[in-house]
Design brief:
Blueprint lengths: L1 E6 L4 E6 L9 E11 L1 H8 L9 E2 L5 E8 L11 E4 L9 H4 L26 E5 L3 E3 L6 H4 L2 H14 L8 E4 L3 H12 L6 E4 L3 H9 L5 E3 L8 E6 L4 H7 L3 E9 L13 H7 L2 E4 L7 H15 L2 H4 L1 E5 L3 H9 L5 E5 L1
Parallel strand pairs: 9-10, 9-12, 10-11, 12-13, 13-14, 15-16
Antiparallel strand pairs: 1-2, 1-4, 3-5, 3-7, 3-16, 5-6, 6-8
Helix pairs in contact: 4-9
Length: about 350
């Protein structure tokens, strides 16, 4: 097998080879077809986001593929089956897990994510617990299935911000892949003419236009007060701080983009009091992976065209080119084809 090995101490990435791994009794070995590069991956490579603390790590928490082999105790899946992997789970023992909020689990959630704390999908083969594997419907292509994890996070975010009624004035901050997927979700849910996307980079603003959703795009300095809901997809502290005065009375700010743990912004509590503002956080995808798969099918034909979304596919050996294109904003997302 080939895999990208990340040295967590020296923050270096290199392409290596090894034997195809053998699954434990409750694991499956997935022959990876497509694996996405997330903004969180870039933060990890830069040393700005927590991950496995020592040794080497194979990143990649968004991936689809075909089952290569199964462990002796695996009954629900068979060799050759198309699957996608949910990288998150809980310990199933603590109070948070028992309450159905494993995103807050001290050992699960973001503390044990495949591709962040355990070896993930930037490899031709990956071992994963069978409890975190989902069958891909026959009518779903594997390159689109690689978007299931981010869509499942959007599904959790949608649950958190509801109700989102048709006619609300909505601002999406950032036209990276997450911002683009949010605009598609809002359009799917029936919002028309009242959605604005804020993005400082012209090339990314043009990506919004390619989606043909008839949503307005603006630079941050063109924005004015009047939004009922703001969804931040940038993870930028200054962007979030600048967005608060743009909210109408009763407005809500959804913090969806993953910021560096060191990021800070200032809030005026009086404005929260006066305008009854709400700030809503969204943490991963607790129990929403089936919703992510449902969104994948609902959005597939109209919204998930890689060319329109600015997604570019690379070979694993092209990882330097892929990461550079993502950092410079030439593309909205890189996906490795294994």
């Amino acid at each position: 097998m080939e895999y990208l090995s990340f040295d967590v101490t020296n923050k270096t990435l290199s392409l290596k080879r090894a034997e195809v791994p053998t699954p434990k009794p409750n694991e499956v070995c997935v022959r990876v077809a497509f694996a996405g590069v997330c903004g969180t991956d870039l933060h990890i490579l830069e040393g700005a986001f927590p991950c496995k603390k020592e040794g080497s790590l194979t990143l990649g928490h968004e991936f689809s593929g075909v089952i290569q082999s199964v462990g002796s105790e695996v009954k629900a899946f068979k060799v050759g089956q198309k699957v996608v992997v949910d990288p998150n789970n809980g310990c199933n023992k603590c109070e948070c897990c028992h309450k159905g909020t494993y995103q807050f689990c001290s050992t699960g959630g973001l503390n044990s994510t495949i591709g962040i704390y355990k070896d993930g999908g930037w490899a031709t083969h990956a071992l994963v617990p069978d409890t975190q594997v989902y069958a891909v419907p026959d009518d779903v292509e594997l390159h689109k299935a690689a978007l299931t994890e981010p869509l499942s996070c959007l599904a959790h975010g949608w649950d958190k911000i509801n109700p989102v009624n048709v006619g609300l004035n909505v601002l999406v901050i950032g036209a990276g892949i997450i911002g683009l997927l949010w605009t598609c979700l809002l359009h799917l849910r029936g919002l028309r003419k009242t959605v604005t996307v804020s993005e400082p980079h012209e090339k990314r603003r043009s990506m919004v236009s390619k989606l043909d959703l008839d949503f307005e795009t603006k630079t941050p300095d063109q924005l004015k007060e009047g939004y009922d809901l703001i969804v931040d997809c940038s993870g930028s502290g200054p962007a979030m701080q600048a967005s608060l005065p743009l909210l109408r009375s009763g407005g809500r700010l959804c913090v969806f983009g993953v910021a560096s743990p060191q990021t800070k912004f200032t809030i005026e509590p009086y404005q929260i009091f006066k305008k009854e503002l709400s700030i809503i956080g969204v943490n991963i995808n607790p129990f929403t992976f089936p919703e992510g798969l449902a969104l994948l099918r609902a959005m597939s034909d109209k919204y998930l065209d890689f060319n329109k979304l600015g997604i570019k596919v690379y070979a694993l050996s092209q990882y330097r080119e892929a990461l550079q294109a993502l950092k410079t904003g030439e593309i909205s997302k890189a996906v490795f084809k294994l």
